[in-house]
């Protein structure tokens, strides 16, 4: 007994293939509107999303900001010299405990 393949399967597959192509074009069009593209002379292409651009701008601002807040350092120096600077032991202890807990949680995730 010979079973002939139905032409309907081929038509259905062609329709699915066409729909996939249309969906891919739609996704590509949306992605293009949210990305910056650069193409090299060799044909290589790089796409950078708008989120990556915002992140790069933020990192650039951080990079160009001073590492030391001179105004805060001067304020603390003045308080120490005048004897008005007070250490809040409870605040320091709280920060130490919080830091220790965060570290334990992170190590637990890496090892678990």
Q: Can you offer a commentary on this structure?
A:
With 112 residues, this protein is mainly α. It is built from four helices and two strands, in the order αββααα. A two-stranded antiparallel sheet has the order 1-2. β1 (35-39) and β2 (45-49) form a beta hairpin.
Helicity, in percent?
Answer: 55-70%
The overall pLDDT average reads 77
Largest sheet: 2 strands, antiparallel
Write out the strand line-up for the largest beta sheet, numbering strands in chain order: 1-2
* Radius of gyration over all CA atoms, rounded: 30 Å
Distance between the termini: 59 Å
Structure classification? mainly alpha
Outline the low-pLDDT stretches: none
Name its key features.
2 strands, mainly alpha, elongated, 112 residues, two-stranded antiparallel sheet
Concise synopsis of the structure shown:
The protein is mostly helical and 112 residues long. The protein has 4 helices and 2 strands; from the N terminus they run H-E-E-H-H-H.
Itemize the secondary structure elements and their pairings.
Blueprint: H1 7-33, E1 35-39, E2 45-49, H2 50-63, H3 70-82, H4 89-111
Antiparallel strand pairs: 1-2
